Amino acid sequence: MISETYKAMLGGKSVIRQLSEYASARAAEIGAQNVFDYSLGNPSVPVPEAFNRRVIELLETRSSIEVHGYSPSLGISSVREAVAASLNRRFGMHYTAADIFMTSGAAGALAHAFRLVTGPGDEILTFAPFFPEYHPYVDLTGARLGVVPASADFQIHFDALERMLTPAVHAVLVNTPNNPSGAVYSEATLMRLAALLEEKERAFGHDIWLISDEPYREIVFGGKEAPYVSRFYPKTIACYSFSKSLSLPGERIGYLAVNPESGVSAMLVNMCGQISRGIGHNCPSSLIQLAVADVLELTADLSVYETNMNILYDELTALGFEIVRPGGTFYIFPKAPEADAVAFSQKALRHDLVLVPGDTFGAPGYFRIAYCVETEKVVRSLEAFRRLMREAY
Ligand code: PLP
Q: Phi and psi of 123, rounded to 5°?
């Protein structure tokens, strides 16, 4: 028997991946330098040299079993301790190693978080625009993803949230800084969200967990920091990834951190070890765990993203696009010049501009530009945007 569930999913493959494959095929035809591939969120800047040096040093100085053996199922103790200490120092938290679970990126952390605090049939609410992979991540746990419509400034649409926050909801999933809008939730937004969740917990008589997906936590513009979500709500599960901050997506490394103020953090982290047994998503590479533990407070040189954002924001605004200025990430999410963003992105392809329509992010009428590309290419793409606007609108 062939699984009907996964067979049905073949009909709904990732639009982003499909556009990225189109861009690669087109690059083979006309040369990569002539395709403005803004489809995929693959970091463009190199990994910090200190990370590579640490990997080499570990390979040269540690035993084969230490660097290539199975890691303990919750992660290497010294690594979990280092993660907890770093979060405490940076964000004034009180984590211990017992609150930290090492994962295969944010995807792995989310897979555990959803299973920790929801069961089949429960609802998890998130906010448009949202990362489209939330659908498979959530749907395959048996829970349901509810999507709160976007607010004009891409903070939270509280009236809609209040309407949708029914007793069926057991978790709320936030992503700040946000893919695809680049919005960073303000302290005021997070305080209001926490107060609302606490009020609804009392009204419903059950827990509502906040799951914070934060792979872009370090990519914030204007010298600012993103407010640390877990500080605002005791029942928060932070899902972090080194994919974007250290440009390490292929190494599949991240962690889940349960706020100890929840009172059940050590139990939840222990439960993660059991979830891993079920989903086979366990024991990230020992070598990579040890290496990231040494560079927890380093990032790749992320400055190019802010440079690219400023160029695109200024030039596209001048061309007449309506845009909420991103506070971070490497995405910008302008309104398309026609209601049908799919038609718009098809027209853009004629100019070799590969843009992702907002429909896939739950926000039709917008489009995403993933500007994790070289600045020189961003500058060259502006003429393509000008031609597109001249010819089509
Ligand atoms: N969450 C968001 C919002 C993302 O944009 C991504 C990747 O692009 C992920 C999760 C998955 O990240 P990872 O590579 O760490 O699994």
A: -105, 140
DSSP class per residue in 171-208: EEEE-SS-TTT-----HHHHHHHHHHHHHHHHHHTS--
Amino acid at residue number 122: D
280, 103 Cβ separation under 8 angstroms: no
Task: Return all residues near 46 (Cβ < 8 A) that are at least 6 apart.
Answer: 247, 300, 301
Ligand 1 pocket: which of 243, 253, 360 to mutate (most atoms within 8 A of CB): 243
Give residue 60 CA to ligand 1 midpoint distance, Å: 31
Rounded to whole angstroms, how far apart are CA atoms 92 and 211?
19
pLDDT in tens, 237-265: 999 999 999 999 999 999 999 999 999 99
Task: Provide the percentage of residues in the chain whose pLDDT is more than 70.
Answer: 100
Q: What is the DSSP letter of 232?
A: G
Report how far ligand 1's centroid is from the alpha carbon of 203 (Å): 33
Mean pLDDT score across all residues of the chain: 96
| Å from CA of 372 to ligand 1 middle | 14
Query: Nearest Cα to 239, choosing from 263, 256, 251?
Result: 256
- From the list 330, 331, 360, the residue with the least C-alpha distance to 345 is 360
**pLDDT digits over 356-382, tens only?**
999 999 999 999 999 999 999 999 999
Q: What is the pTM of this model?
A: 0.97
Task: Count how many Cα atoms sit within 13 Å of the Cα of residue 112 in the half-sphere of its side chain.
Answer: 34
